[in-house]
Amino acid sequence: MKKIICFILSFSFLFLAACSGNNSANDDTVGYGIYQIADTESSNFSKLYFRNEERFSIQYGTHSEGGSCAIENGKLTVDIKNSDCFYVFDIEDGNLVYNADKSSPSENFVKYSDITDGTSFFLAHEASRQPTKNLDNA
Known about the structure:
The protein is 18% helix and 35% strand.
């Protein structure tokens, strides 16, 4: 009887562990540091600088914009300081993917940037801080 109970308990724990391992927690976590375009052949070589939970900047060509940021529902939104412009990046497996349909870019961004819808950025240089958390859970 003990063996049957142990078997059932073991199976239950394994089942729960398997089910809980497929959550979307990674979709709402971004590491601090410098993100680069996966395709480094780009002419303007754009970078994203994620400094902390409140500071973010985008460098493209000779231009740079910065502002505050927030993570919600698997998306990183950057509000550019002193403007109505903002950028939205989908968080996919720790990478940031530019979402042009949800963004409102600046004129300089449109004119000088090599970033287009779906451009993926990977964490090239991680800063020595803990990753930011989803604001819904803060």
